[in-house]
Amino acid sequence: MSAPDELFCWEGDWGLPSVDTDCVTILAYAKFAGAPLKVHKISNPWRSPSGSLPALRTSKGEVLSRPSDIIIHLRKQKYNADYDLSAREGADTLAFTSLLEEKLLPALMYTFWMECKNYVEVTRRWYAEHMPFPLSLFLPGRMQAGQLERLSLARGHNALEAGEELEKERLIKIDEMLRTESHLQMCLVSSQLYHDAVECMNLLSQRLGANKFFFGDSPSSLDAFVFGHLAPLLKAKLPNGKLQQQLKSLDNLTHFCSNILLLYFPSDGRENLSHKASSQAEGGDFDHVPNKRRKQILSALVAVGAMLAYALFTGILSIQHVHQRAIESSPGLPADDEEEEEEED
């Protein structure tokens, strides 16, 4: 019997199996399809075989990173959550999955990674506290830059066609608008993203209706994608929760997420608490010192070194050298006079 496929994903929190949308989607689909994956929940993407999360290492050594590729692979292994869907339901799955990618996902990326208070107080803080040192110092910022690039492409990819310079310029302008510090432009961007996301969630709510899942009593890939996108938004404690409040106003969608957590991930709320203690010492020196204490010590040393370097560079602090020859030639001279003589020379 061959070894099971291994899934590497971000660890969970807030009562979720993972804090990452793509990871939650794959974990949910694997549960729905009954795929026997060996799951590694980690907080260091450099431990992943692809250097990013999620990542699936197959029994043959192949590495897959995109959620769609991972789901296709699982289907080829006879783990298909869409096996009983009709042709029309299959078409609806494609349509609503595209709607999620085009309308809801950009708003989620903006909410978690671009909105200042949410990013500083929740997103960056969570990743910085869970990543091992020194990745916690620079990787959250690098991840934010990656999300910004992904958001720019998501807002412009429908109009971008190879060889059309005007459309390329349009994409560049979108990217510049997202990067600018102009409050007015950022408000326009966030307003459009919010409008699209609300439209998407309303359509999902209408399609779900009073059903337990989107196509009856059994979950499908569409349920996995919807759950992956909505559950982090529902459970994260966001200081700026405009989009979150809109989701909570749609009772059937909130019940949909809660039911999946209860049925398929009942132990993740308890696991999140136990993983926090065990994941703090993921490599690095001084493993006998708790991760938080180690960060404090190293941060203090870096700060002291920086202050000393600044003081020496600016002349606030100087080092005076006393020549041994001058001391020997004036053995009876007091120490203060010796220094004054050297300064006069």
Structure characteristics:
mainly alpha, globular, 345 residues, 2 domains, Glutathione S-transferase Yfyf (Class Pi), Chain A, domain 2
Question: What's the topology here?
Answer:
Blueprint: E1 6-10, H1 21-33, E2 38-42, E3 55-57, E4 63-64, H2 67-76, H3 87-114, H4 116-130, H5 135-156, H6 165-179, H7 183-208, H8 221-235, H9 242-248, H10 251-264, H11 268-278, H12 291-314, H13 324-329, H14 335-344
Parallel strand pairs: 1-2
Antiparallel strand pairs: 1-3, 3-4
Could you explain how this protein is built, in words?
Belongs to the metaxin family. By secondary structure, the protein is mainly alpha-helical. The chain folds into two domains: 6-269, Glutathione S-transferase Yfyf (Class Pi), Chain A, domain 2; 291-344, no CATH class. The protein is built from 14 helices and four strands. It has a four-stranded mixed β-sheet. Strand 1 (6-10), helix 1 and strand 2 (38-42) form a beta-alpha-beta unit. Helix 1 packs parallel to helix 2, helix 3 packs across helix 4 and helix 3 (87-114) crosses helix 5. The longest helix is centred in the first third of the chain and has 28 residues, at 87-114. The radius of gyration is 28 Å and the shape is globular.
Gist?
The chain has 345 residues and is mainly α. 63% of the residues lie in helices and 4% in strands.
Q: What is the global morphology? A: globular
Low-confidence regions: 157-164, 279-290, 319-327, 333-345
Which strand-content bin applies to the residues?
under 5%
| String of helices and strands | EHEEEHHHHHHHHHHHHH
How many domains in all? 2
CATH architecture of the largest domain: Up-down Bundle
Tell me the number of strands: 4
Radius of gyration: 28 Å
> N-to-C terminal Cα separation, in Å?
87 Å
Helical content (DSSP H or I, runs of 4+): 55-70%
Which CATH first-tier class of the largest domain would you pick? Mainly Alpha
Mean pLDDT rating: 80
Give the class from helix and strand content and strand pairing.
mainly alpha
Number of helices: 14
What composes the largest sheet?
4 strands, mixed
Q: Which fold does the CATH topology of the largest domain refer to?
A: Glutathione S-transferase Yfyf (Class Pi), Chain A, domain 2
For the largest sheet, list the strands in their spatial order.
2-1-3-4
